Amino acid sequence: MLVQMGLDDTVLSASPVHQRLARVVLASSDVIEWKPGYGTGDASHDDRFGIVRVGGDRGGVFLSSVLIAYLDVLENAARMGTSISEDSWRTLLWAPTALFDHVLRRPQLGMTVVTPGPGTEYLPHERVQAGQRLYLALMQAVRFAVSGVVRAQDDRPLVEDCVTLATACLRAATVALAFACDVRNDPPLPIMETAEHRYLWQMISEVRAAVPRARFDQFASALRRLNDIYTASPLLVSGG
After folding, report:
1. What is the pLDDT of residues 105-136, one digit of tens each?
2. Hey, how many other C-beta atoms are within 10 angstroms of the C-beta on 186?
3. 64 forms bridges with which residues in the sheet?
4. Considering only CA atoms, which of 170, 177, 184, 179 is closest in space to residue 232?
5. Cβ density class 69-98: b for 16+ within 10 Å, e for less
6. Rounded mean pLDDT of the chain?
7. What's the sign of the alpha-carbon dihedral 181, 131, 113, 76?
C-alpha cells in the first residue's frame, strides 16, 4: 500500500514539497492503522526526544516511522545544513532502500542521493531530536533484521540478506547519531542506549554461527563503530 501511494524509500529523493506532504500523510491514522497513547517506555525519554508511541498495524507503523524519521532529518538538514560527509550521507540514505528491498523482495536497483545544501537557519534542538529519533527507528530495523537471521537459519540466502540489512542499518544508525551531535559550539549530548542495542550483544554468538565469516565481520565492525560513539558520549538508558 505504501508503495502504491508513492510512500516508500523513493520519497526521500523527492522534492521538498512532496516530502512535506508525505510526512503529513504518513503521520495520519487514515493511512496506517494506529492508536495514539500506546503506553510503554520511559515518558521522560519520550518527551526529551519528541517520541510519540502508538499501537496498531505493526508493520505499517514500523515502516512509516522509519520514513517519518528520515523525512524529519532531511528537512532539518535542508534548513540548517550539515557537516556530515557525502559518503556518510550515502550510508545514511542507503538503509531505507535496503529495508524496502528486503520487505518487498525487490531487486536492488540503487538509489538517488541528494546531499543537503549549506542551510541558513540554526535549529540545534530540532537537530538533536531528529537525529536521535532516526537512530531509534534504525535500531528497531536492526533488531528486525537480526531476528530474521535467527529465524531463517535453514534459508541461507534469506539469512545473508537479513545480516546485510542489519549491517546497513547499523552503519546508518551510527551516522544518525553523528548527525544528532552535528551542532556547533554545544557540549556533547546524551545518547540513549536502547534495549535493541543490548539485544544485539546478546545475539551476536547466534549471528556468528548463522552467517559466513565475511558477512559477520562486516556486521561486527559496524556494531563496534556504534559502540565507539557510545563510549565517547554520556548515556541515557532506555528499557522500552
Report:
1. 888 766 777 788 888 889 988 998 899 999 99
2. 12
3. none
4. 177
5. bbbbbbbbbbbbbbebeeebbebbbbbbbb
6. 84
7. negative
Report the C-alpha gap between 52 and 123 in whole angstroms.
20
Q: pLDDT of 34-60, one tens digit each?
A: 666 655 556 666 666 666 766 667 777
Query: Grid cell 529495508 — which residue?
Result: 99
* Residue 234: C-alpha distances to residues 124, 128, 188, 227, 229 (Å): 18, 14, 8, 12, 10
Element (H, E) at 192: strand 191-193
Q: Please tell me the distance from the alpha carbon of residue 99 to that of residue 87, in angstroms, as a whole number.
A: 19
Report whether 160 contacts 54 (CB < 8 A): no
How many residues are present in the chain?
Answer: 240
Q: Which residue has the cell 538517488?
A: 112
Q: Which residue has the cell 563510549?
A: 231
